[in-house]
Every structure is written in structure tokens, then in C-alpha cells.
Amino acid sequence: MSAPTPASDRPLAVVTGASSGIGAATARALAADGWHPVLGARRVERLQEVADEVGGTALALDVTDADSVAAFVGSVGDLVTADRPLRGLVNNAGGAKGTETVLEADEEKWRWMWESNVLGTLRVTKGLLPLLIDSGDGHVVTITSIAGLEVYDGGSGYTSAKHAEGALHRTLRGELLGQPVRVTEIAPGAVETEFSLVRFAGDEDRAAKVYEGLEPLTAGDVAEVVAFAMSRPSHVNLDTIVLKPRAQATGMRFHRET
Ligand code: NAP
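That is the input. Now the predicted structure with NAP docked in place:
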């Protein structure tokens, strides 16, 4: 793992779930915009590779484990100096498991989705908010999903977790009024990452079918939007941004070329 002293005096931005997909792409986009990304995830070798590539700092993080989050928050605090405040937090770690109906619901999968998407976002946000407030110009970005805005058959575990994560995030908007912290929810549709591989327990054929016959968003497409929101002047708060592939109308409704 990186030594806990970044070489730069660029403002710090924590990105959770930065070992792949949207999180890794966000670390790249923020580094290109002059941030020093602090990357957190469980697969530390992959995390370190991304950190080395972008000149950031990799720190082990399991958002489902309160002790891991506490250690992570402590290490982020050690990186902060007067010239190098923590100004950004991108709550991105999370994902989906399974597509069981409510009748067939698997409690273990539900627990994983609620722990990683909801309680994980709560733990990290709660831990880092004091530093973001102290910075005098903080920003919390949470990657929810269109699954946080609608429901679909077989998606109740994930849609309920993303609805809850969105509710937690949007509550901050009021609670932080008067504080120097902006709050942006980004709700993507289909993005081709490891998301479907995780959802379908490593079944590559099933994962590939999700994106068959259409051009999905890339992780970079979402990362550009995150970086755009975080690069607006301090008084401009982009509250909610929904982005989907042109070929997607809702969570379940796509146009596919045959
Ligand atoms: P991904 O490639 O599977 O990335 C998920 C990231 O989350 C990985 O870096 C993973 O790292 C991390 N993560 C998972 N559990 C974690 C834990 N307990 N502690 C710390 N990190 C954890 O998928 P992605 O599409 O980029 O997903 C990123 C976010 O976007 C998720 O919140 C997802 O729900 C949301 N989203 C995705 C899509 C889509 O279609 N892809 C659409 C809308 C929203 P480790 O495994 O190394 O810990």
C-alpha cells in the first residue's frame, strides 16, 4: 500500500470502490482535474495499480466492516494538512447480487447489498464529513443508480438498497444547509463494468448478455460527469444527475440491435 504521505499538495478526494469500474475511472478523471485521489477498496493490489497510475494513495477499505472504515478514516485524516484538505468524497463502493423475485429472495444477498450500498455509504460519509466540513469547501458525490429511482422485477434487493442509499444521500442536502459542503447524487443506467459479473456470481456469458445489442455507458462516461459536478464553482450544487445509454429507457427497457 502507498505510504500515507502524498507527494502533492492538491486537494484530496476519497473514492470508494476504486479498484475497478466507475471508481477507478473516477480516480483517473479527478487526478486529471488536479485532485489527489485517495482510493479505497478490498482488492488492494488492483487498487495500488490504479493509485500508481494516477499518482494517488491506495488504502485498504471494506465498507461493510466498521473497524476497516475507522482505520481508513484515520489514515485519510493523517493525509490532511492545511494545504491539502479533504474536499471530495465519492461514495461509489457497492453493487448487486442476484435477480431473485421477492418470493425467492435470498437474505444473504440482500444483506450484502444493504451492507455495501447503504451502511457502507453511511459509515464512510459519517466518518469523513467532519474533515469535509473543516475543509471549508467539501463535496459528497454518491453513485446511486436508476435502481434508486424505480423498481423492476427481480431487482428488489438492489432497488431497495439503492432507494435507501439515495434517501440517505438526499437527507444530507437539508442537514448540511449552511455548511460549506455540496451534495450530488449521480444515478447511472447500464454501465459496462464488473457490475454484472458480480451480480451473476462470475457467470461471464450471463453478464455479457446484459449489454448485448446495445452500446452501454462506459465507466469513463460516468467518471466525466462526476468530475464535471466536482469542478463547478463552489456555490453551484448539481443535486441529481441521471445518465443512461441512448438505447435504455428504464431499468428493464432497452432497444437492442439484432
Ligand atoms: P464494479 O466494477 O463491480 O465496481 C465495484 C467497486 O466496489 C469495486 O471497486 C469493488 O472493490 C468495490 N466494493 C464492493 N464491495 C466493497 C466493499 N465491501 N468495500 C469496499 N469496496 C467495495 O461495478 P461498478 O459498475 O463500477 O459499480 C460502482 C457503483 O456504481 C456501485 O455502487 C453500483 O451499484 C453503481 N452502479 C453501477 C451501474 C452499472 O450498470 N455498472 C449502474 C448504476 C449504478 P473490491 O471488490 O476491490 O472491494
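The CA atoms of residues 42 and 62 lie 6 Å apart.
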